[in-house]
Amino acid sequence: MRVAARLSSAPLSFHLGEMHIFAGAVLIILGYLVLIPLILLILSGFKETGFLFDPGFTLEHFIRIYTDRQTWELIQYTLIFATGSTSISLGLGILFAWLTERTNLPLRSVVRVALVLPIAIPGVLLAMGWVLLASPRIGMMNHYLMEILDLKSPPFNIFSLPGMIFAQGLSLTPTAFLIVSPSFKRMDPLLEEAASIAGANLLKTLRYVVFPLLLPGIFAAAAYVFLVTLVVFDIPGTLGIPARIFVFSSEIYWSARPTMGLPEYGRIGALSTVFLFTTLVLAFFYNHMTRRAGQFTTVTGKGYRPKLIDLGKWKYLWLAAILLYLTLALVLPFLSLLWTSLIPYFQPFSVEKLRLISFASYSSTLGFPKVRLALTNTLVVVAVSSTVVAVFSTLISWLIAHSESYTRRALDFLSFLPMSIPHLMLGLALIYVYLTVPFLPVYGTVWILVIAFVTTYLAFGTRTTNAAMFQLHKELEEAAQVSGASRLRTFRSIVIPLILPALLNVFIWVAAHSMRELSAALMLRTSRSVVISTVIWGFWAEDSEMNRAAALGVIMIVILLILTVIGFFVVESGQTLRIFRRKRLNR
Amino acid sequence: MLRVEGLWKTYTVEGSKVQAVKGVSFAVERGEFFTLLGPSGCGKSTTLRCVAGLEVPEEGEIILGERVLFSSRRREQVPTHQRNLSMVFQSYAIWPHMSVYDNVEFPLKIKRVPKRKEKVLQTLELVGLKGLENRPATTLSGGQQQRVAIARAIVKGVDLLLFDEPLSNLDSKLRVQMRSELRQLQKKLGITSIYVTHDQEEALVLSDRVAVMNNGVIVEVGQCQDVYLLPKNLFTANFVGQSNMLPSQKVTREGAIARVETAIGEIVVNGNDKQSPAQGVVMIRPEHVSMFSTKEEIASYNSNVFPGTIVSETFTGKLMEYSVQVGAQTLEIQIPLQRGFRKGARVYIHLPPDRCILLPAAGPDGL
To answer: A14 and B149 in contact by Cβ < 8 A?
Structure first.
């Protein structure tokens, strides 16, 4: 009787008032940032002209797309491109993770850092570097090989589907490596020992224990890389458009910037919806697998060293293979850009031409008012986006850790959703939003870029701060509360200092990514809202001023390299700190 | 000093409601060391966390001194940080980004107390951490971290000190040492304390009074000795210490004693009062049973003597544990090591009437 009475009585809610208001406010902002563009984008596919306030709905765009043979060709090309480049980067990523974590590869700790560096080269610059190396007309590699081997025609053509797959594969290998290697690193060797004590031989141990434990990490990497390659613009845009090889992203870019007339927003919206479904599924599969991988990689905090496999005399061959990868993905493209930026007009590298070297391209390019504006804009966008994402992610994660089930799920879902929205489409969606709903006059300014970047990078930001927040034992906060500290004071004195490495990591990562981001920036580009990445694209693809594009590209790569190295060490230090903290708490 | 009335707390775990605390009431006197003892999941920690304000009950009242900390009826709730109490956690919850000094200073800093340094150093000395104030807190051992946690809890001078299984992460030697230090410290400072543990020995050593909890309710409250020697129900008898249980078939009362028919014969129980039940179970602790090898030795006893056979013996160091088959029943007996008692030996056991307790049989809810 009494039990029943308790259950039916209304729950007391007076205690959580402030929390509810705060969580509600954050949910509204998140919903505004994430859902409005998404809904408008999908709705635009059902509108004659693509604009929301036009009367009537139509299925015409969808019918036209599905009956168009071109669409199927587009899907086919996109799938070949995505599958091919995913296979390359995943294969290399797994191989490199295994080599650096579980074998006695020479110079492992150096290699581990070096393998992250190619992330610092944005796709568009990698593609440009490879055009300079392997374009049939001007490519330096083609030039030398034709000369040495006396060939009639250039051996390589980077403006091809294999060329695009090759470059994209190189570009995403570090990403796959970074996602997979924790599974290799943190797998408790006790599990393997237990299997061999239970009577399993090496092969059985690998098959029944090691491989199943690695699978979630590998699936997560595969889903993430495949998602990226389905929608990425940089490389297909640089290498595919000149050869009229279109994949989904370059098709959208092309249709959104027609040489004459209005963009076919309706058609684009309909096309996007098709892809959005796929990316949504992939993103949630990725999220699920990351969680599984996290459950499997138990950090025991014991200072163990996994058993290392002896590579024997092959170890230098493996090291050479890694060096070859680094040469192709980082050194050669960078050097070809550097060379191009230092000589007045493009020609293949040779020792006699060294006397032509000057910094003229740098000084004249940096003197352009357009470039000056782009530099200032980039600085503003980078500083504001990374700060806002870091702060907002921390608040969201804190709320996720402290609120009840429904709020928690809504916050988690909304902050993760942007991962499935391709940047080009987000750019497009924001055009719809701020052309149709003009209460925030941000269209054409850098602030629309800030909105785009904050939205899209919140997914990464919240994943990182969530992980850090869940590592914090809740009693650490409760101890502050019983010591007399209010929630705000606890947040400031306890939570923030303890998750600082994660916070810094988010800050640096978002800074690096918003500096190099091209797709959304291109969609939202106006004469006022240029940033460095779009200026580079303009010089390269539109004005054919290779040396100016190369000069800005070199500057950007150097800055990104520095940020990447700092970011890498921040993450490393954060991990040691966390392991340490766990260990102490578990004593 | 502290009064808790009719506390109810329900959790929602994956969509289904779990009642953790079902109408718990108790009062703690000023300066008293009060322990909530029970198996895991009995609601003892939840009760403590409600007192701290870390959980919000659906119903009940919590009053500390004159101050209402929580009242569902008056819809009042004081947030944790304004309750002027402290808590020592199971994980110690030492802030890893601060030094020992900073950890202990924190509560004073929040209160903006002047001349903090003197106070912090005094407290550190009190818990035996003198000279370690500048160490990063994470470089300390588990026992030292627990001392920091205690120092942090007592430094600001609180009305109520809460302990949530603070010793369960320490190894057994250290645990024994810490619990006697804790007891001395609490008596010295005279702080009203509530302690939560599942370890009955810890509860008996530390407390003035113990509340035994099971399934979200308090089944018995009393002085340590009473809870152990004169439990009022089966759950307490079983949970606090080991016990032999002999179901009764018939109870006959004769003044101060009761004669209880059991499967092994008639047992005389002393201390029969009017409340003792008509039906029930006779409980006796293993260490209260005595054992003899010859009939002559038991000649002086005129009741409660039974012949039996030793079916197993276990050496535990301090004591020997014997299982003795008496009729269809097996009784556990603990006595110091003696020669002559071997497995298979015929023996006589004696159950002292003062130590036999007649308990009501278990009701439908296990009580």
So the answer is: no
